[in-house]
Design a protein that fits this description.
It is a single chain. The protein is globular and about 45 Å long. By secondary structure, the protein is α+β, with helices and mostly antiparallel strands. 16% of the residues are buried. The chain has a 3-stranded antiparallel β-sheet, with helices on one face. It has a two-stranded antiparallel ribbon with strand order 2-3. It has a domain of 71 residues: Alpha-Beta Plaits. The chain is built from 3 helices and 5 strands, in the order αβαββαββ. The structure holds iron/sulfur cluster.
């Protein structure tokens, strides 16, 4: 069998689409802490988006890999992205809960 352009085209068409794997994390964004810097969107562009108020939102929780979600959360300069293990419910990020620090109440 020769690798003519036609046979290569056929091989490409038979290749399955990239498998979508559900992420390991439930994502929460602490809206009042988000400064709209956007590094989360640069790292996990299919998961995070910006709303009309220039605050990050979750567009597709399984849009990126779990590794990319963790990297995006770790990149947030104000720890506005919280990741929880879907199975255990335990917080994975940030390591210390600064959620209720001064100014976050309400
Ligand atoms: S990196 Fe943090 S502060 Fe920046 S847009 Fe994302 S959630 Fe908001």
């Amino acid at each position: 069998m020769s690798d003519t352009p036609e046979s290569l085209d056929g091989a490409r068409r038979k290749r399955p689409a990239r498998e979508r794997v559900p992420s390991l994390y439930r994502i929460e964004i602490l809206r009042k802490r988000c400064t709209g810097v956007g590094t989360c969107m640069e790292i996990a562009s299919r998961t995070f988006d910006m709303d009309d108020e220039a605050v990050a939102v979750v567009r597709d929780p399984d849009g990126n890999t779990s590794e990319q979600l963790l990297a995006a959360a770790q990149s947030c300069p104000v720890d506005a992205i919280f990741l929880y293990d879907k199975e255990s419910g335990e917080k994975v990020w940030p390591p210390r809960d600064k959620r209720f620090s001064k100014g976050d109440e309400g």
